[in-house]
Amino acid sequence: MTNLIDIKGVTHAYATKAGPLPVLDNLNISVPEGEFCAVVGPSGCGKSTLTRLVAGLMKPDEGEVWLHGERVTSPRSTVGMAFQNPVLLEWRTILDNVILPLEIVPNKMNRAQKEERARELLTLVGLDGFEDKRPSELSGGMRQRASLCRAIVHKPEVLIMDEPFGALDAFTREDLWQTMHALRAEEPFTGVLITHDLRESIYLADEVIVLSGRPATTQYRMDTRLGGRTDIDMLYTPEVGKMLYDLRDQIEIAQGRKVVETAE
Amino acid sequence: MNDTLRAWLVPSFAILIFLALWELLVWANGWPNYKMASPSDIGPAFVKYWPLFVEYTWDTLWRTVVGLIVAVIVGTGIGVIMGFSRTMRDALYPLLVGFNAVPKATVVPVIALLFVGQHDFNTILIAFMISFFPIAVAVSIGLSTLEPEYRDILKSLGASNLTIFWKIALPKTLPEFFGALKVAVTLAFIGTNLMEIVEPHGRGLGHLFDSGKINADYPLMFAVLIALAALGILLFYVVVVLEKIFAGWAERSQTY
């Protein structure tokens, strides 16, 4: 098995007062080990449902989700999650926030080892010196860095990110993108990134998947490997410009604003 | 001026000015002490009844604290049930609101008849009944407004509901809990005195107040009021200190 994440024919609907609301329709996504997959699509097309399915927080009506050759039926500690809202625990220090998953996931680490592991990650994202601060004393970007450390502290196989940089200003966001590449270089993990930012998807992911409007299905895939370039300047190459243009086009189709041209 | 010194001096001066104005008011109107006692009458009353004040203050204090502890336990329990179950919230809310709406002064004679002779129990029961409501409401709101992401973060790691409760739900509710406890401590204190005054049974500051009334000893009545104020302030600040220790994190620094 070469794919770490395999989403096979997943269909899901929510029960609402107005009847069933289908959100995912025969969705198929595969992410090979070590790769990063970005999922983009119109608002409310079921992207967040996708993250909850992969995390095992809910079961699809139809279809299967597989992680590392095992079918996902319940939450598993080999998954790390980061959200747009960093959801740090205000009563804990930054260090204790990052340690949290190690207190829940079974492991043989003692307190000193857990602290060392957390400090190592905090240093990697540039938060050394802030270990003993409370989340309320940190800026939005710093809180999100801490949230990323917490998501990977237990060395998960899969990192699921639901618009993690959505609430940050443009400059902070670019900083965080580079931090993500730095983290990936040190800590190999397979990732699913839900985002609204097409530049972000191209910069961070190896493959970008465009979902159609609700109920979502895979509408378009694009290989966005750029020969291993991780510098921010690469976003200003004509190659990336073309990719952005094509993705933009696909989003418009997904939104239903543009009719697909058929060869006649 | 040093900040700590300032923090003590300003309120102390305010109290002194208040006492001076009070004294002045009584003196200017030429009121006798059976109409309105002045601060200079209260000192001698304290001295005269000192042993009673010590004994009865202790009675009022421990009854209030026990009533409050019961209110914390029961109130938190009800709050947890209502916070986690929508059905229980819908079922219990109208009952609680109705119960809370009944003026407790009317409940006092009922309780006194129901458990006749058991004065300590009666007093504690009223202190509890009057003070558990804000705690139950605060805990249930704190728990039911927990953002789903917090739950997801722990659930996705395979945490049990109990772990989620201890690690997230409970600590996150502490600021609301202490906000309610500040209200509850004052209410419990009112409850204790209500029982002691309405159904006097020979103990507590409420009884001392009542005997002052019967004997037309107005300086004693005012001395009891001052003692009650002091005790109320003490209880309130104990809660404030506990809040600083357990929920101090909720206080944001002003720099951001």
Query: Would you tell me which CATH topology of the largest domain in chain B applies?
Result: MetI-like fold
Instruction: Kindly report the spatial arrangement of strands forming the biggest sheet of chain A.
Output: 6-7-8-3-9-10
Low-confidence stretches of chain B: none
The CA-CA distance between the termini of chain A, in Å, is 41 Å
Low-confidence residue ranges of chain A: none
Radius of gyration of chain B: 22 Å
Averaged pLDDT of chain B, please? Answer: 89
Q: How would the global form of chain A be characterised?
A: globular
Number of strands of chain A: 10
Radius of gyration of chain A: 19 Å
Task: Name the CATH architecture of the largest domain in chain A.
Answer: 3-Layer(aba) Sandwich
Proportion of β residues of chain B? under 5%
Q: How are the SSEs placed, and which strands pair?
A:
The complex is a heterodimer of chains A (264) and B (256).
Chain A (H helix, E strand, L loop, with lengths): L2 E14 L2 E14 L3 E5 L6 H8 L7 E6 L2 E2 L7 E5 L10 H11 L6 H14 L15 H13 L5 E5 L7 H17 L3 E5 L3 H7 L2 E5 L6 E6 L14 H17 L10
Chain B lengths: L2 H27 L9 H10 L1 H35 L1 H16 L2 H11 L4 H26 L3 H8 L5 H38 L5 H11 L3 H30 L9
Helix pairs in contact in B: 2-10, 3-4, 3-6, 3-8, 3-9, 4-6, 5-6, 5-8, 6-8, 7-8, 8-9, 8-10, 9-10
Brief summary:
The complex is a heterodimer of chains A (264) and B (256). Helices cover 33% and strands 25% of the residues of chain A.
Q: What would you note in describing this structure?
A:
The complex is a heterodimer of chains A (264) and B (256). The model of chain A has no long low-confidence stretch (mean pLDDT 85). Chain A is built from seven helices and ten strands. By secondary structure, chain A is an alpha/beta fold. Chain A has helices at 47-54, 94-104, 111-124, 140-152, 170-186, 198-204, 238-254; strands at 3-16, 19-32, 36-40, 62-67, 70-71, 79-83, 158-162, 190-194, 207-211, 218-223. Chain A has two domains: 1-78 and 158-247, Rossmann fold; 86-155, no CATH class. Chain A is globular and about 55 Å long. Helices cover 33% and strands 25% of the residues of chain A. Chain B is mostly helical and 256 residues long. Chain B contains ten helices and no strands. The chains are: A alpha/beta (264), B mainly alpha (256). Chain A binds chain B through residues 52, 55-57, 74-77, 79, 81, 83, 85, 87, 89-91, 100-101, 103-105, 134, 136-137, 150, 154, and chain B through 147, 149-150, 152-159, 163, 167-168, 171-172, 174, 247, 249-250, 252-253, 256.
